[in-house]
Fold this protein.
Amino acid sequence: MKNKIIVALAGQPNVGKSSLINAISNAKLKVGNFSGVTVEKTEVIFPWRDEVASVDYEMHIIDLPGAYSLTDYTLEEKTTKSFLQSGEYDVIVNVVDATNLQRNLLLTTQLLEMGKKVVVALNMIDEAEKEGIKIDEKQLSLILGVPCIKTSASQKRGIDALQEAIVKVHSNQFSYPKVVYSDPIEEEISRIVAFLEEKKYQIEVPYRHLALKLLQEDEAIFKKLHHEPIWIELLPIIKDSLSHIYLHNKTKDLSKIFAYEHFAFAKGAKMEVMARKTMRAKNMTQKIDNLLINKFLGIPIFLFFMWGLFQLTFTLGEIPMDWIDMFFAALSEGTKEFFGGGNLGSLIGDGVIPGVGAVVMFLPNIV
């Protein structure tokens, strides 16, 4: 009898989830709808054999709608969130666009917070490499606490390694991945965890996961604990913890606070694991761009162009300025001779014309 593994395939839109499914050979496709909604549900069923352990598996991969985050803003996000919360699966495979790592890791952090078994597929790695992007998947695995596999659906690269990772994660005992937050939140998580350990509170999920959900004011967790005796002692601690977190933020909106935490974690993870090589120029425009933004030559070239602009403005500009000055000087003298030495001649020849000339003379520098 084959061992059944149900995999939830989650990721942001346009990360290549469908292509990744199509890259799996001998797959049997089932199309339907998610319960209660009209969003299409795609399920792939295929056999896989662990040659080392001599065990046969039947994998069911459910392609969830693309979602930028686990919110209720769109029908797709609501459907994805509802299915992931249902627990009707064994492993989450988070498909990440390797060319936009930081943006995609925002969803990854939310998936890790769910306290489920997760595998990260760094998809479109071939496109990332073409753009000069290098990702250290081993370091990323250490940071996230889950396996990270480089894949390319178009080249069918990493497909076997991904399947092996799914089976390994499914077979191994669950280890809660740790998303690192800012110091105030980490302090309050530790505070609640210490209280739960002291009380020896019995619950299926890890204490850290429970503490995090309490700080996020998770409705399901609040309902679960509200009628238990520990709630009387736990509630004041939660209030104090939230007050401490609010003190270090400009808002009391927990969704915004944790959205910023997710952004900071994703940015930090990207900076640690991703490097971008300078791409070889393919045309004259790219060659000029590479020269102008060179970290050694860029500033000297900029200063040279500023010096050249200064010379062009004030050295070459003196030539038409002299011509304009001579023209208005001659026009002034001619006007005074025409009107004579009276007040009108002086007004026009010594006032109006020189004044206009002084303004017009600077036009070459301005233009």
In short: The chain has 16 helices and nine strands. Residues 3 and 57 are 5 Å apart (CA to CA). The chain has three domains: 3-171, 183-276, 286-366.
